[in-house]
Amino acid sequence: MIRLTYNLLWPLGMLIFLPGYFAKMIRRGGYREKFGQRLGMYDAALRNRLSDRRSTWLHAVSVGEVNIALKLANALRALEPDLHCVLTTTTTTGFALARKTAPPWIEVMYTPLDYWPVMRRAFSVIRPGRIVLVEAEVWPNLAATAHARRIPLALVNARLSPRSERRYLRFRFFVAPTFRLLDSVCVPEHRDVERWAALGVPRNRIHVTGSIKFDSDVQTKSVPVVSSTCLWNVPAENAERLVLFGGSTHRGEEEVLAGIFLRLREQFPSLRLFIAPRHVERLQEIRSELGALPLRVTLATKALGDGAANADCMLLDTTGELQRWYSIATVVFMGKSLTAHGGQNPVEPILAGKPVVFGPHMENFATLAETLVSNKAAIQVSDSESLERTIGRLLGDREARQGLVGNAVAALNEHKGATARTAQIVQSLRAKC
Questions:
Q1: 294-312, pLDDT tens digit by residue?
Q2: Whole-angstrom Cα distance, residue 328 to residue 336?
Q3: Is the dihedral of CA 247, 251, 254, 260 positive or negative?
Q4: Which CATH number is correct for 228-415, 3.30.1360.40, 3.40.50.2000, 2.40.110.20, 3.40.50.1580?
Q5: Can you give the pTM of this predicted structure?
Q6: Which residues share a beta bridge with 356?
């Protein structure tokens, strides 16, 4: 009855949310390419490629989840050398990254909308032998179709923000039947077991594996773009270029960082500012905001070609390359934590050997943030004033920066091997028919 109601209301909900959905797609660009796949429409060439094999279907929403899915797929391939996967993703940025980095044995597609006729067509083409959902994507029709066809369904790196948990518990009657269809749930922490059990997942299906996102064993060995000294053409007598790095920033945070930079530059003349916005489509908006300040701003791609000797601030204008740029940082501020809520993943800069500072809003990484702060492995600030004081102190204290990084790497050790542990659990899933 619940699923019937969901499908009856689905077209109405789509009409309500469709304008915002299309507006977001247009802002991010590239929405026309393969759009039919979102509706379960696939070309003959794709159908032929998938027709002669059973694939492992990996579903990841955007860039972060795609990276997790690719790490897991490689670990599974080591266990199953003849493995073939289908990787579906929702956003155009996730699709672009997946198509750019996925090996030939992974077919990259857009996620079909969770409406029963669309999902039925998708299953008939993908023909999955098992389905692996990454982090938080559990859709009613997808789960029900998999269950009806006796296809194992796993949720890995299961993420449950406090906000989502409250919402799910409030509507537990409606969501529990879907969560009970999961054959396996891999969670990062022991404390997550009870949280997922409260939503209806049987305890014997919940496995503590650690977080793939925080697993240093399989972190991509990215080649640094350049050093900050080379990028800003630092003279030989000035061996160090200090760089304040804003990673995955959201609206409002760029202006805060720019103000902090301008004030701290009086104390640190060699200081430069690098901003990597979470959504690259905001570049024009950011350039307009920073243009009102006494800043010389350039784009990263232009700086790589022409040099950035005269630039004060550089903006990252490409997608999927953030990890490679952390090498130039002296201190990293993690975005979506000061003027926005949720936070962003602090692990990549830590593994790049950089000290991390974040704001009060790290809800999506609450457990990790708590662990880092309690182990003096990162610094959490309450507002822009304390952010400025903290950044100023770290810029002037190399030992303090090194201490944060060392403590952070040690704090992440509990997640080492998470990818391999998760892969073994996924491998153990077998079709129930």
A1: 999 999 888 776 666 678 9
A2: 21
A3: negative
A4: 3.40.50.2000
A5: 0.79
A6: 332
